[in-house]
Amino acid sequence: MDFMLWATRSVHLFAIIVWLGGIFYQGLFVVPRLKSDDKVDAVAIAAMLQFVPIGWMCLTTALVTGVALMLFSPRFLFFEYHDYWSVALGLKQLLFLLMTFFFFGCSRMLKLAVAAPEQSHNALERVVQFSRINVAFSILVIGIAVSMR
Predict the structure, then answer these.
(1) Checking CA distances to 15, which of 52, 65, 77, 137 falls within 20 to 30 Å?
(2) Residue 102: its pLDDT value, please?
(3) How far apart are CA 146 and CA 149, in angstroms?
(4) b/e for 42-62, b at 16 or more Cβ within 10 A?
(5) Alpha-carbon distance 106 to 68, whole Å?
């Protein structure tokens, strides 16, 4: 059982590191290049589109391993928020769902910007907004996760 817990936690951390690294990279380096000098940067859009499948893979892996870690924990009780750890876990789950929602929106807006260049201005504004929201939520999740130890 100890090996399963160690392996699950390792895979979970790896998925989270790749996911958050991609979110931070896009939010801090790629998104500012999306609209430089009032023209759309095709290389930035292509870089963001390349991360979409990797992002979905990381989200799925984090979800499956996170549920497994939650169920392996002796502190976890279904729908009971009796201590700080349980409340922090609930907040992490809520933020994970919100980040998934905004990642889905970001990927849809990127595909819309590629498919309809005449509407790319509005779509790219949403991509910038969703990316910044995901970066902010990522920082909150990291803080909550660190405080759970």
Answers:
(1) 77
(2) 93
(3) 6
(4) eebbebbeebbeebeebbebb
(5) 28
Tell me how far apart the alpha carbons of residues 101 and 106 are, in angstroms, rounded to a whole number. Answer: 9
Give me the mean pLDDT over the 119-144 stretch: 86
Report whether 105 contacts 38 (CB < 8 A).
no
Q: Is pLDDT at 45 greater than 90 in this prediction?
A: no
pLDDT category of residue 104 using cuts at 50, 70 and 90: very high
Cα end-to-end span (Å), the chain: 20
Let me know: does 119 contact 113? Beta carbons within 8 Å.
yes
Among all chains, which residue has been given the structure tokens 């803080």?
143
Can you say how many angstroms the Cα of residue 34 is from the centroid of all Cα atoms in its chain?
20
- Tokens at 86, concatenated: 């349980």
Q: Give residue 37's pLDDT.
A: 62
Domains by residue range for the chain, with CATH: 2-147 (1.20.120)
pLDDT at residue number 26: 85
Q: Give the whole-angstrom CA distance, residue 23 versus residue 62.
A: 14
- CB 134: neighbour CB atoms within 10 A? 26
What would the two tokens of residue 111 be?
């595909």
Calpha distance 7→50 (Å, rounded):
28
